[in-house]
Design goal:
alpha/beta, Rossmann fold, Immunoglobulin-like, 9-stranded parallel beta sheet, 17 helices, globular, binds alpha-D-galactopyranose
Length: 667
């Protein structure tokens, strides 16, 4: 597959006479793919049952004439006005019981059978028309699934789904401990939707109900997506793939479940503040690559600025190019900009684009054209290659939801917590995979996990991993809940106590930081290791009780009396050569950085390239090393002579200007 460069093109926004200037400029910029038709339902089916694909056919022909492949987005994120007027039951209902008004997008009820039937029909018509058209390389289902509907239909569907999950009300009542606050249900129809806060009546709903509601939304979107996939697959030739554009770490549904039915995952990456942050942005790529454990499309990203941030600042000169190469370095098979040209009116007039309303390039067009030239020059290096990481960070939507429902400390953001592990490794240019807590862990040297919801399958894989010689970092709040979001009957980390060599005596949400002291090798019973610094815990601290065979690496200083002097971080070496590091506290950034540096060294994890100056981000994909600089110019010396495929230079030492990129292979 070539490395694609593309843009979202909405020909329906402009008179047909102007399309030719669009595609000519696309070709000149080196674009190889356009995305069309998403949101175009009112143009594709102007009246119920009256389809007009002629304009799309002509747009596709024009694109193909200019060497552009086409991806068709099904238009179902934007139901047309004739439909919402005639069939208001297709509209989503908000938590107050008010139906959505027409005029924006994503206003559909994902559980509406009528809506699904309309979606199936338009997707099928499109597939019949374009499914055997070689100019069309793939399909995108809908756009950024996100809306939750609290309609009566959704409630009935939820109740039916619960019946299928639990089989009996007795089982559900037991799993949710519904005797608590007299919630016991004697009929499925009594089960409410979890609505609280501003829209409800103050008290949150049962944690079991809330978790199941999120899982139900996942199932509803899975069904919604499959409904279209089925008809597309029935008519499309096998070479046409199907994807969906996810939104990075958005947690509205379980992305692992939805990705299962796609050929590959795609995502939409935006920089609302206008600037790159290598750790944050790379984590989004690693997450998306982890949805199916394969390369992905960066199917939308911003040319310049967005229009929805508090301050929509644009990327600096060079930053757009750096961001594109960072995506490729992390496994993107395509980088597509949103959008090609702004519509003359509509909600996104201010959004960045390549072409201004006058039909002429904006300044960022030249930078994107450079990317186009570079993809043509160096794209072959990435063909069939992906990222190989020796570290896996485990991630779970169930865990994130359960923790978010009951943060216990307002600042306990599960994503920030994940980031506290990702950042120190990213800074060291260590390649990582972000995977489901249910992933197989063969081949990794180091796994970082904090499985809040723990069952035998998750624990079993971690135990197997350590027994095979793997190093495991276990984080706070591990092993606390079961799959119903109920408390486990064992002390944390429950089924992982044996491999961790410790259990949690008590947990504390911290109003103030608590000092942490590294146990020096003299004071520690066994094993001399380089000294770890002192520091502090914030937000969360667990009093760890070490079991025989475990070593205490860090203890709490003066705190609340209970924590004083107790173990904060322990380590349990295993006969297999594996080791479990139990981090019972959310450590301050400097201490976390030092400890993670110490652990990766013990685990034998190597950076992509050694000795790079701070601020140079490096990734390896196949034989190619992609090095991206931040804003300060610096020189980089590689361990060997290399060819930079962008400049054509061969050297060992390279000068990198602000946001500079080199794509190097060893010579
Ligand atoms: C999302 C949508 C696009 C567009 C962009 C704007 O990612 O998928 O249609 O609205 O945001 O940033």
């Amino acid at each position: 597959m070539p490395l694609h460069l593309g843009a979202a093109w909405y020909p329906e926004h402009w008179p047909e006479a102007r399309w030719a200037e669009d595609v000519k400029l696309m070709r000149d910029a080196g674009l190889t793919v356009v995305r069309v038709a998403e949101f175009a339902w009112s143009s594709l089916e102007p009246r119920e049952g009256a389809f007009d694909f002629g304009w799309l056919e002509r747009a596709i022909a024009l694109a193909a004439d200019h060497g552009l492949a086409v991806v068709i987005g099904t238009p179902t994120a934007a139901p047309p006005a004739w439909m919402t007027q005639a069939y208001p039951d297709v509209l989503a209902v908000n938590a107050d019981g008010r139906p959505a008004t027409h005029g924006a997008r994503c206003h559909y009820d994902v559980t509406s059978e009528r809506y699904l039937a309309f979606c199936r029909r338009i997707a099928e018509k499109l597939a019949i028309c374009f499914g055997r058209d070689a100019r069309v390389i793939g399909w995108q289902i809908d756009n950024e699934y996100n809306t939750v509907s609290y309609s009566e239909g959704a409630r009935r569907a939820f109740q039916d789904w619960l019946r299928r999950c639990y089989g009996s009300l007795d089982a559900l009542n037991a799993a949710w401990a519904t005797a608590y606050w007299s919630q016991t249900y004697s009929d499925w129809s009594q089960i409410p939707l979890p609505i609280q806060g501003a829209h409800g009546f103050g008290q949150p709903h049962n944690p079991g109900l809330r978790l199941k509601w999120r899982q139900f939304i996942t199932e509803a979107y899975r069904r919604f997506q499959l409904n279209q996939i089925e008809v597309i697959r029935a008519h499309a030739m096998p070479s046409q793939w199907i994807t969906h554009n996810f939104m990075g770490f958005f947690d509205g549904f379980d992305h692992y479940v939805l990705s299962a039915d796609l050929d590959f995952a795609s995502w939409d990456q935006y920089y609302p503040a206008g600037h790159l942050d290598f750790a944050r942005d790379s984590a989004g790529h690693d997450l998306t690559r982890g949805f199916k454990r394969k390369n992905f499309w960066l199917i939308e990203t911003q040319p310049g600025s967005v229009n929805w941030a508090p301050i929509n600042s644009a990327q600096d000169r060079g930053e757009t190019r750096a961001a594109a190469w960072n995506a490729v370095a992390h496994g993107a098979e395509a980088v597509c900009y949103w959008q090609w040209r702004n519509a003359p009116n509509g909600q996104e007039q201010y959004h960045g684009s390549l072409i201004a309303p006058d039909g002429n390039p904006r300044p960022v067009y030249e930078e994107i054209s450079r990317i186009g030239r570079e993809f043509q020059q160096a794209g072959h290096l990435f063909d069939g290659a992906t990222v190989e990481a020796s570290v896996a960070l485990l991630h779970s939507y169930d865990d994130r939801w359960a923790l978010d429902f009951q943060r216990h400390h307002a600042d306990f953001d599960p994503l920030q917590y994940l980031g506290s592990f990702y950042r120190p490794l990213s800074r060291r240019n260590i390649a990582m995979d972000i995977l489901s807590t249910r992933a197989a862990l063969d081949g990794y040297k180091l796994v970082i996990a904090a499985p809040h919801i723990l069952d035998e399958a998750i624990a079993g894989e971690l135990i197997r991993f350590v027994a095979g010689g793997g190093h495991l970092v276990l984080g706070v709040r591990s092993g606390m809940k079961d799959g119903n979001n109920a408390l486990l009957r064992q002390r944390q980390p429950a089924l992982l106590q044996d491999i961790a060599g410790a259990h949690v005596e008590e947990y504390y949400a911290l109003r103030e930081p608590v000092p942490i002291h590294a146990v020096t090798s003299g004071r520690r019973k066994r094993g001399a290791t380089p000294a770890l610094p002192d520091g502090s815990a914030h937000i969360w601290a667990e009093w760890l009780v070490p079991h025989p065979g475990a070593q205490v690496l860090m203890t709490y200083g003066a705190a609340n009396g209970y924590l004083n002097g107790q173990a904060a971080v322990t380590m349990k070496p295993h006969a297999s050569g594996g080791c479990v590091y139990y981090l019972g506290a959310w450590l301050d950034d400097a201490l976390q950085d030092a400890l993670m540096g110490w652990i990766v060294a013990r685990a034998g994890v190597e950076p992509v390239l050694p000795g790079l100056p701070a601020g140079v981000h490096a990734m390896r994909r196949g034989e190619a090393y992609v090095l991206i600089n931040d804003t300060e110019a610096k020189s980089v010396t590689l361990p060997w002579r290399a060819k930079d495929h962008l400049s054509g230079r061969t050297a060992k030492r390279f000068m990198l200007g602000p946001w500079d990129v080199i794509v190097a292979t060893r010579v």
